[in-house]
Amino acid sequence: MFCGATGVVLGLLLLIFNRDSNLGPILGWVGMLFGFFLPYAYASYRRTKRFEKFEELFPEAIDTLARAVRAGHAFTTALEMIADEVSEPVAGEFRKLFEEQKFGLPVRDALLNLVDRMPLVDVKFFVTAVMLQRETGGNLAEILDNLSFVIRERFKIMRQVRVYTAQGRLTMMLLMGLSPLIVATMLVLNPGFIRPLFVDPFGHILLVLGITLQTIGYFVIRRIVRIQV
Q1: What is the pLDDT of residues 183-196, one digit of tens each?
Q2: pTM score, two decimals?
Q3: Most CB within 10 Å of its CB: which of 29, 69, 102, 129?
Q4: Are 27 and 14 in contact (CB under 8 A)?
Q5: Please, which residues have CB within 8 angstroms of residue 31's CB and are 6 or more apart in sequence?
C-alpha cells in the first residue's frame, strides 16, 4: 500500500509540473513506476545489507558459542554471551533467541524463529546441527567448530566467484548506463535529431519498448553473474 501511494503521488507531481509539455503523460507514468518500486528497492537493499553483515559476523558468533560450551557453560548461557560480545545484527538476533527461551518458549521453537527472521543457509545449518545434537547427543563444541570452518571456506569461494564475475557486472553497468548517456548527449549536441523520440507517438512507443528491454536485460545479466555458493 505504501509503495502504491508513493507511486501515485510521484506520478501526479510529475504530471502536474509538466502538464504543458508533451512529455507530461510519459513522465507521469515513469514517476508512478519509479515511486512504486523505490520503497521496495530501498527495503530490499537494507535487508540484503543486514543479511550480509550477519553472515560476516556469524562465524565469530559460532566460535564464541563453541568456546563457551567447551568451557562448561550451558547452551542457553552461551547464547547470552554471544548477545553481549558480538556486534550487531548478530547480537540482536541472539538476544531475541535467548529471551524467547528464557521466557518459556522451547529452545527448538526459538531456533526455528531465528531461521524465520534470518532465512540464510548458514543459519539453517546451525539450527539443524544444534537441534540434532540436542536430540541425539554428541560433542556440540566440535560440531560448531566444523560448522564455523565450513562457513569461512564458503566465504572464500564466494570471494573468488565475485572476482571471476567482475567482468560481467561491469558489462551490466556499462550497458545500463550507455543508453541514457547517449540520449542525454544527443539532447545537448543535436536536440532536433532526438526530439521526435519524445514528441511523436511512435517515439513514445519506442521509448517505452527501449526501457522495457533495458530492464529485462538488466535482470537477465544480473541472474547470470549471481552464482549461488
Answers
A1: 888 877 887 887 88
A2: 0.70
A3: 69
A4: yes
A5: 7, 10, 11, 13, 14, 15
